[in-house]
Amino acid sequence: MKKIKTETAVGMILCHDLTKIVPGEFKGVGFKKGHVVKEDDIPALLSMGKDHLYVWEDQPGLIHEDEAGQRLAEAINKGDFQAVGPKEGKIDLISLKDGLLRIDVQMITEWNMLGEIAISTLPDYSSIRSGDKVASMRVIPLAVKEEKVAAVERMAATSDWIMKVVSFQIKKAGMIVTGNEVYYGRIKDKFSPKVKQILAEMDVELTRKVYVPDRPSEITNEIINQAEGGQELVLVSGGMSVDPDDATPGAIKATGANIITYGTPVFPGAMFMLAYLGDATILGLPGCVMYSPATAFDKFLPRILAKEVITKKQIATLGVGGLCRDCDQCHFPNCSFGVG
Q1: b or e along 14-37 (b: 16 or more beta carbons within 10 Å of the residue's beta carbon)?
Q2: By the 8 A CB rule, do 54 and 1 touch?
Q3: 26: Cβ–Cβ under 8 A, 6 or more apart, which residues?
Q4: What CATH number is associated with residue 333?
Q5: What is the domain range of residue 12?
Q6: Domain count of the chain?
């Protein structure tokens, strides 16, 4: 950075914002940091009392914030995003498709630990739509050592992805509504309409729905029929608690499915069940899905639709952050419960 007379600043880059004040009318940024001074800017700058300016001076080994931001974006973006900017040194990444946002959290953390580099993203495993802003990045000073950005580029080159969008692959689902009270018409089915709504919001069609009484063998047989019939997602509603008539967990186990978990440290949704049977994902849905705005089902669904294999350890880590605040007005997934 160097100090020069304003009249000689044409073509130079301003090092900081310049405040403009018109008494009673305006106070704010008259010229932004990074602005390239033009001939017709000179009278305005002089009228602001700027007889001298601090401007960017090329120095070996340093690069301007705009170039640094662009290079950071290029290091991260391997095809799923559009870079927008720079604006005041900041670059945004916009998703080009719907899906599950995956982030190499360790890599982004290492880059932010380098100092003078700031990269901010949506949470890992966020469900996003095309056009969503998923990340912003910049360097903190007006100029940064080129080697620091080059270090990021070298690390990025060692990985197939730093951030990516995994498309939702499952587009159809089957549902088994259990319970004698529904099967025999004692009460109206309120479970499947809610599940159908949740699926529709994720562009998933409920293509098969079967009502089954609280007879474990019938529930087991219907799960197997749907899985062997090519249904990639089978939802079994109700009967998930410890009541003597609740047969769903045992019926799912009887299929021979690989049980990942029966129970999660997520509230609401503690009695949620996840299992894999061949190519099908089997979910046991607790009763809270009917009436709670967001549950464990909503947290896991985007991962399942993207065919991300969920492990027991991943489920266990959700104990931290897995508690819904029960807000008067639900903002899921834009809340702490929606993270991860």
Answers
A1: bbeebebeeeeeeeeebbebbbeb
A2: yes
A3: 20
A4: 3.40.980.10
A5: 2-55
A6: 3
What DSSP state is assigned to residue 336? G
Looking at residue 25, what is its pLDDT?
A: 85
User: Which of 141, 159, 158 is CA-nearest to residue 65?
Assistant: 141
Q: What is the pTM of this model?
A: 0.85
43 and 67 assigned to the same domain: no
Long-range contacts, 17-24 (Cβ 8 Å, 24+): 18/45, 18/48, 18/50, 18/53, 19/48, 20/48, 21/48
Please choose, from the candidates 273, 289, 107, the residue with its C-alpha nearest in 3D space to the C-alpha of residue 190.
289
**Sign of the torsion angle spanned by Cα atoms 284, 287, 291, 295:** negative
Using the 3D structure, point to which of 13, 32, 55 is the last residue of a domain. Answer: 55
**pLDDT the model gives residue 54:** 84
Say if residue 187 is in the same domain as residue 309.
yes
Asked whether residue 340 carries a pLDDT value surpassing 80, the answer given is: no
Q: What is the pLDDT of residues 109-124, one digit of tens each?
A: 999 999 999 999 999 9
Residues 292-318: tens digit of each pLDDT: 999 999 999 999 999 999 999 999 999
Residue 240 and residue 101 share a domain: no
Nearest-angstrom CA–CA distance, 324 and 223: 30
Q: What sign results for the dihedral spanned by CA atoms 265, 323, 170, 283?
A: positive
